[in-house]
Specification:
Number of helices: 7
Shape: globular
Helix content: 10-25%
Radius of gyration: 23 Å
Largest sheet: 6 strands, mixed
Number of domains: 3
Distance between the termini: 54 Å
Strand content: 25-35%
CATH class of the largest domain: Alpha Beta
CATH architecture of the largest domain: 3-Layer(aba) Sandwich
CATH topology of the largest domain: Aminopeptidase
């Protein structure tokens, strides 16, 4: 009986596996929509890598391909040919719109005479993108765009926002500066929609970001030549590797951290008999730098947790690997690093020495959690609207310096949480309320 159960299990696993081709629109000489601060081709590529970062964390999503990896021109015919040749299960074309600077909103397309699954994919993904930005709902639509008309798999094209919009805010500035993690929330929205459509049992957490060796946020330095390999089960398409010599060669993963806080840092590599038994890793975080020696000859092909560290929002933190001090002739592997916000109650001394205010979720639609660190205990904080008018006083919870704001009756818009302490001064944080 068991002899038949094992093959059946493997068959089920294969049936559950799926692949996605992501198409960052425009590129190279084709800017697409043009804003004052940013172009569509740049925004599309940024979002595509974030979608990929989330999707590649799913065991059932075996391949995540992209029609372009850099700022290069790829014709519409070549994009379609690439997707069709790969035989991917789904095709996602990422775009941002433009009109006359005064129109804003979100719309998602599929081909009107295409697969029925295209309509389902469009209808599921669209609300996620809409919720990510909270802009005007311009609806789900059909169109004969080349890349969704001629691809041989269920396909959609998303226009998350109008990049040239400048009336109440500048959309291109939001994308350039990653305001409120603008591109990150969009990337997660695409992933979440695809996960629901593909009946994935798990959606990667929003605050779980991976930097792979094939991403722009990965870089190498030193005189040596880094090679790539695909033996075993790398994270993504391959891994970078180099043989240890007398020279010092380094690699670095430099993520964009969307929310300041404590993050579990984990490594992924492919082990082998020639791998370094003393690979040197450095984690650069809020409290300084932590150093680790990792045996890459064993384990691998799964996440290996280094520890939990405090990171500021932005690109201030990083993880590096160095050949310095490693055994000559062995091979060090630089594959992927995951930064995943830690759960409450993690072990260790996590006292925060710097003053900070954390808000989650942000943008928000209902209850908002506000936490203060590095300040004396406060009985209440104030919520102000964009005109500086006091909207509500929020008392602290049982936990010290933790506040819950329930914005019933407040119109969607921008608000500010303000904490005033005679000893510590004033802390404030902007909150975007999307409506309830």
């Amino acid at each position: 009986m068991i002899r038949f159960l094992v093959p059946l299990f493997l068959i089920v696993q294969i049936m559950l596996a799926w692949s996605v081709c992501i198409d960052p629109g425009h590129g190279g000489s084709d800017d697409g929509a043009v804003g004052i601060y940013y172009t569509e081709k740049e925004a599309n590529l940024d979002v595509a890598y974030l979608v990929r970062s989330y999707l590649e964390q799913l065991p059932e999503c075996e391949i995540v391909a992209m029609t372009r990896l850099t700022d290069e021109y790829v014709s519409l015919a070549d994009r379609v040919a690439y997707a069709n040749a790969g035989g991917y299960d789904r095709f996602i074309s990422i775009h941002h719109n433009a009109f006359n600077g005064s129109v804003q909103g979100t719309e998602t397309y599929c081909y009107g005479d295409g697969f029925s699954e295209s309509f389902d994919l469009r209808d599921i993904v669209h609300p996620y993108i809409l919720d990510a930005f909270g802009y005007i709902d311009r609806g789900v639509k059909t169109a004969g765009f080349y890349v969704i008309k001629y691809t041989e798999m269920p396909s959609i094209l998303g226009e998350a926002s109008f990049l040239d919009y400048i009336v109440q805010w500048n959309e291109s500035w939001r994308l350039l500066t990653q305001w409120q993690d603008h591109e990150g929330v969009e990337g997660w929205a695409y992933c979440a929609g695809v996960c629901e459509h593909m009946l994935s049992p798990v959606t990667p957490p929003y605050l779980s970001r991976v930097v792979d060796n094939s991403y722009p946020l990965f870089s190498t330095e030193g005189p040596g030549q880094w090679d790539t390999g695909c033996f075993g089960v790398p994270f993504g398409p391959d891994y970078a590797c180099i043989t240890v010599s007398d020279d010092v060669d380094t690699a670095r993963w430099n993520p964009y951290i969307p929310v300041s806080g404590w993050y579990d840092v984990s490594l992924w590599w492919v082990s082998g008999s020639n791998r370094a038994t003393d690979a040197k890793f450095t984690v650069h975080h809020h409290d300084g730098e932590s150093f680790f020696t990792v045996d890459q000859s064993i384990g691998g092909e799964e996440w290996y947790r280094l520890g939990t560290f405090a990171f500021h929002e932005g690109t201030f933190g990083w993880v590096g690997i160095s050949s310095e001090g490693c055994t000559p002739g062995q091979v060090i592997v630089a594959d992927a690093v995951r930064f995943k916000m830690a759960q409450v109650g993690i072990e260790g001394d996590h006292s925060v020495t710097e003053q900070a205010m954390y808000v989650s979720p942000n943008p928000a639609g209902a209850s908002v959690r506000i936490e203060l660190y590095g300040v004396s205990e406060l009985a209440e904080i104030g919520i102000y609207d964009i005109m500086g008018r006091l909207v509500q006083r929020v008392p602290s919870q049982q936990q010290s310096n933790t506040f819950l704001w329930s914005p019933e009756g407040c119109a969607p818009g921008v608000y500010f949480a303000v904490a005033v302490s005679y000893e510590s001064g004033t802390l404030s944080k902007r909150i975007v309320l999307l409506g309830q």
